[in-house]
């Protein structure tokens, strides 16, 4: 998936999107929060993440307690065909379920603390794990994934699911979008997804 820029997680940025956003359904009663959206070079909002529970902020302090954080993050990715940039400087690849799986996997890695490793060792670890996450996302039917059925707006939908020592990742389709999610300390098997109808509820 093409690298996109990230903007501040304002409600206004989410309202600019031309696709529906998804979050956990009413079964989740805890805190909810917005992460930065991703935009393509032509300024279109291409994806964003709505978090539930603790914000999985990565920290490198020796006393970091990131492993105790409890969260689930829903990644909504616009369905985009391959397209040429308006200024003629290049093209963007089409999005897919693999795009959602990659973004979810990358999000989980970004939330994973590797303290107190030296900076260069941390970066090498992140590069290696990111390459592995992309390889896995590009082979959703492979042995690294299993099947999981979860409700989306009350209708059962198939997802691809995998667990690791860092948490879990899943990806699939939802009406109008590709959907990914990642989490730690929260069981994926008990989740349900729903269309967000009131983004103002996320305004701080």
Summed up:
This protein is of the alpha+beta class. The chain has one domain.
Provide keyphrases for this structure.
204 residues, 3 helices, two-stranded antiparallel sheet, globular
Description of the structure:
With 204 residues, the chain is α+β, with helices and mostly antiparallel strands. The chain has one domain. The protein has three helices and 13 strands. Strands 1, 3, 4, 5, 6, 9, 10, 11 and 12 form a nine-stranded antiparallel β-sheet that branches. Helix 2 packs antiparallel against helix 3. It is globular, with a radius of gyration of 17 Å.
Q: How much of the polypeptide forms β-strand, as a percent range?
A: 25-35%
Q: What number of domains?
A: 1
Gross morphology is globular
Largest sheet: 9 strands, antiparallel
Task: Please write the string of helix (H) and strand (E) elements.
Answer: EHEEEEEEEHHEEEEE
Instruction: Count helical runs.
Output: 3
Helix and strand arrangement:
Blueprint: E1 5-6, H1 11-15, E2 22-24, E3 32-34, E4 38-39, E5 45-53, E6 71-78, E7 83-84, E8 91-92, H2 97-110, H3 119-137, E9 146-152, E10 155-164, E11 167-174, E12 177-184, E13 193-195
Antiparallel strand pairs: 1-4, 2-13, 3-5, 4-5, 5-6, 6-12, 7-8, 9-10, 10-11, 11-12
Helix pairs in contact: 2-3
């Amino acid at each position: 998936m093409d690298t996109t820029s990230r903007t501040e997680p304002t409600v206004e940025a989410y309202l600019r999107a031309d696709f529906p956003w998804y979050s956990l359904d009413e079964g989740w009663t805890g805190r909810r929060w917005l992460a930065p959206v991703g935009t393509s070079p032509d300024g279109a909002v291409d994806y964003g993440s709505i978090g539930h529970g603790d914000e999985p902020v990565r920290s490198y302090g020796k006393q970091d307690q990131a492993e105790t954080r409890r969260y689930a993050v829903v990644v909504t990715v616009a369905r985009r065909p391959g397209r040429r940039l308006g200024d003629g400087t290049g093209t963007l690849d089409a999005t897919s379920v693999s795009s959602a799986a990659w973004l979810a996997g990358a999000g989980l890695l970004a939330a994973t603390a590797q303290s107190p490793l030296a900076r260069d060792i941390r970066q090498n670890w992140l590069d290696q794990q990111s390459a592995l996450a992309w390889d896995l996302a590009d082979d959703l039917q492979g042995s690294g994934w299993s099947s999981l059925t979860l409700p989306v707006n009350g209708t059962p939908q198939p997802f691809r699911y995998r667990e690791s020592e860092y948490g879990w990742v899943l990806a699939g389709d939802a009406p109008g979008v590709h959907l990914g999610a990642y989490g730690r300390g929260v069981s994926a098997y008990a989740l349900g997804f729903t269309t967000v109808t009131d983004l103002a509820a996320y305004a701080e």
